[in-house]
Write a structure and sequence with these properties.
By secondary structure, this protein is mostly helical. It is built from 16 helices and no strands. The protein has helices at residues 2-29, 31-52, 58-63, 69-97, 99-105, 111-133, 137-161, 167-189, 203-238, 241-255, 259-272, 278-305, 308-315, 322-348, 352-405, 416-431. It is globular, with a radius of gyration of 22 Å. The N and C termini lie close together (6 Å).
Amino acid sequence: MFKKLIGTFGTRFLNIICGFITLLVGTHQLGAEQWGIGATILLDVSLSLLLVELIAGPGLIYYASRIPFAKLFKISWLWTAAVCALLFAVFYVIWCFFPVFYDTIVPEGYGLITLGLVFIYGIHNFNMKLLLGKERVGTQNVLLIIQFVVQFLSMLLFVFVFDIHTADAFVYSLLSGYTSGFVVGTIIVLPYMKNDGSEDVSIWSAVRNMMNFGIMIQLSSIVTMLNRRLSYYVIRRCTGMSDVGIYGSATQISEATKVVPLSIAMVQFSVIANMNDEKKAAELTIGFLKISVLVTLLAMIVICLLPVEFYEWLLTKDFSGVRDIIIALAPGMVLMSANMIFSHFFSGTNRPKYNFIGSLVGFAMTALSVYPLIYFYGYVGAGVSMSLTYLAATVYKWFVFKKLTNITLKSLIPTSSDFTMVKNEIRNSFMR
């Protein structure tokens, strides 16, 4: 358990380092507008993959040892291809009848390559989910490292060797990283094609089981992604692609603070999912909540205190507005760390519906606030909208959590016993 956690944390940290250097190269060598195009394409891919994971997603992890691999392989490949075909049809209809809207959501000339990225990463993701389901966490981490290291190195190659200073450099680097992970992963998982002893089931039964397992989780993820990324499209519509690049850079810097609460939440989930004592699970959740919020708050304070000149030096003067956006996002990042802890409590106690409802509450706030705030305050308004979104979702989850566990508001005050309890649980989980 300890090796798995350390390996996963190390993988995420290395990913952040590669992503940060890529950010520096992109902002310095591509400029705000081209970097904004790259950010929009990555957003399109991420949203499309949520549709792929309705079937070829969380259900793969659970059913990897329950359904024959050959059947999972067929289902995932066919479903991924079907989603890409559907998206192609949707893109074509929008392009024909609503060209202005199409231009807002898909940068000109990048429609087909976006679908290609969706398909390749969808299969790459299938390989990683299968390995997780087979408890080969280390191998899954290796595949992820191959993906983002190749992606990072190819970005340097396209910019500094092939002298490409447009969004193409970033898009080709994504293609290189996804393809390398897909190829290596397919070689690794193909031996599972032979009979693995799993109980055979019909294709339709397998699809139904996988969709039933993952649909609530994916619906929550889809709404959450829309909450977090709707601002990109509104910014592009209201103020232009350059501001998308600036806002995306600020978001990437702010979300680097997620690595600690994500790691904490993973430990929390692994502990709570194996508990029968809900009272203890609630007390442990509160302890994790305090530490997660405190660490994120300290990290955001440091990032917000850095002067404008630092960000101009780091990202060029075109990105001087990054600090203002980060300040607007800061409350949201702190609230997001609390939101993650509540979410993992609900998932660990088999109450995923509250995560979905919480996402809908956040989306309602986004829908009400994002356009007027961006219209009047530009990309800073997008940061404020995001903070309001997390405020609404977190307040809802707190009241549900309070109702289910009878935990009082007073319990949110940090005490030394919280840190002792969490430390003991983490140590015990490492020893399991």
